[in-house]
């Protein structure tokens, strides 16, 4: 069986297409198969997805971070999405022939290198976490760049796993980890009422007693010139909480508030086991194209063309 790992670094840049292209190209030049890139100007964030052998994805992730760091200054960064780093988070995800435990080793290898060579504090998270309180990314990122700037180097609870015990002045800090396949999924409500999105997000997320393995927040976004409220979610394990279950729960709560669903969207790729065509139609998935959004189909297509 081929040893294949997916890596999905998130960068705090969603408006400069040229820079996003440079970041993606840096990973590709190291031999990784570029699967997807997503930019969101409201969140001011991009998600780059690539795959390859364990050794290849570590090299590619390092190259993409090295390309991004000198060109993203968090002191001037504004966006809806929480962020603590120019490269905010780097997860490794096993696809085939590789265990989560091996991906933990990749996270540690990359984290050590970024910390030592690029001078960015690194926090290991998810399955790679060295402390229980660092398992969940929102717990690490609490306070974001501005808040962490005042904590790293002063509060013993914020000593990083790798790198200097001080925040990088422009690039902040980065979380590196290993995890099961995460689905980044957003639902747009047909209203500009962000309070409604935030209330729904609080009701459905796991930490507040909602759906298992589920993170959610409410934001304002712009779609085709319209300001809409968005319920932005991470499904940490679609086997426990599916896309359909999430959609129907949000739909029910929105309906109770007199609000309809405008549409929904995926950020990045999704495994075929998590989404079929009927579900995509039911959840009003914007611009759904399996050839571009289903992981297995994208990998097969990329290889046919190479």
Q: How would you describe the overall organization of this protein?
A:
- The chain is α+β, with helices and mostly antiparallel strands.
- It folds into 2 domains: 175 residues, Formiminotransferase, N-terminal subdomain (Formiminotransferase-cyclodeaminase, Chain B, domain 1, 2-Layer Sandwich), CATH 3.30.990; 120 residues, Formiminotransferase, C-terminal subdomain (Alpha-Beta Plaits, 2-Layer Sandwich), CATH 3.30.70.670.
- The strands form 2 sheets. Strands 1, 2, 3, 4, 5, 6 and 7 form a 7-stranded mixed sheet that branches.
- Helix 1 runs antiparallel to helix 2, helix 2 runs parallel beside helix 3 and helix 6 crosses helix 7.
- The longest helix has 19 residues.
- The two termini are 20 Å apart.
Mean pLDDT: 95
CATH classification class of the largest domain:
Alpha Beta
Helical content (DSSP H or I, runs of 4+): 25-40%
Number of discrete domains: 2
Based on the coordinates given, report the CATH architecture of the largest domain. 2-Layer Sandwich
Q: CATH superfamily name of the largest domain?
A: Formiminotransferase, N-terminal subdomain
Overall 3D shape: globular
Q: Treating each run of at least 4 consecutive H or I residues as one helix, how many helices?
A: 10
CATH topology of the largest domain: Formiminotransferase-cyclodeaminase, Chain B, domain 1
In N-to-C order, the SSE pattern is: EEHEEHEHEHHEEHEEHEHHH
For the report, how would you describe the main beta sheet?
7 strands, mixed
Strand content: 15-25%
Quaternary status of these chains?
Answer: single chain
Q: What is the count of β-strands?
A: 11
Low-confidence stretches are none
Give the structural class: alpha+beta
| Terminal CA distance | 20 Å
What is Rg? 19 Å
